[in-house]
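Entry for the shared binder. Reason: the reviewer on the internal report wants the predicted structure included alongside the sequence.
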Amino acid sequence: MDKVIFVGAGSMAEAIIAGIVNKSVMRAKDIYVMNKSDEDRLIYMQNTYGVSIVSAERNELSDAGLFILATKPKDIHQAMADIVNHMNDDAAALSVIAGVSIATIESGLGARPIARSMPNTSATIGKSATGVSMNQSVNNNMNKKIISLLSSIGIVKEVVEDELHLVTALSGSGPAYVYYLVEALEEAAISKGLCADTARELIIQTLEGAASMLKKTGEEPSILRKNVTSPGGTTEAGLRALEKNSFKQTISHCINDAEARSRELGIMTDPKIT
């Protein structure tokens, strides 16, 4: 892929850069990063990944083929204003910002190929679960480039744009839910006297094993659950406690609230509304 510029240098930008550099999908010298206010962060990215620092003020953006928008939602309008006059007419934009619509990006960057995606921070190790949607200006060649770039950090699913709010709630925020589950399991195990290191190793292996079973067997999770649930056994007792405490309803509320927040962020950044 041609020169790529990351607009924003936060955790998501770093996760994607780490993924594509570590898997040698792109040369580090073809990756550039700009950030409005944190020079130390840019220097860290340069020293860690070998990428280059770039700025609109020095007019170093005009030969880039793809801009990856990775700012906070509240900063997107200023970021677009900073770069729009320096982008060539054929340059595409790929957003990884939660909630910000393609229409909002078009309003700031004009008529050009634009894709909106939601990776997660597992991109750092090439294990992201990413949803992406593209406008009609994205031709087959650019579509393949964007899919290829996102595939370098994990799996990619093309969805209609409105579904990206749910993708954000499900897989974009999903790793945090898993880490929270691990915290809860560890705390419960340690409170019962298990060594913290032992608990951590057992939990990680349990999660890896369960995920591999789902992936490799292709079985429904309900079938796999029933296969390890003996009548009157320990698993049944544990599951009964989860049901008693409305585990599924809690997960449903989690996804609903996260999706709603993604939609709120979209409204907050829509220039027609704000």
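Summary line for the report: Strands lie at 4-7, 31-34, 52-53, 66-69, 92-95, 114-118, 128-134, 154-158.
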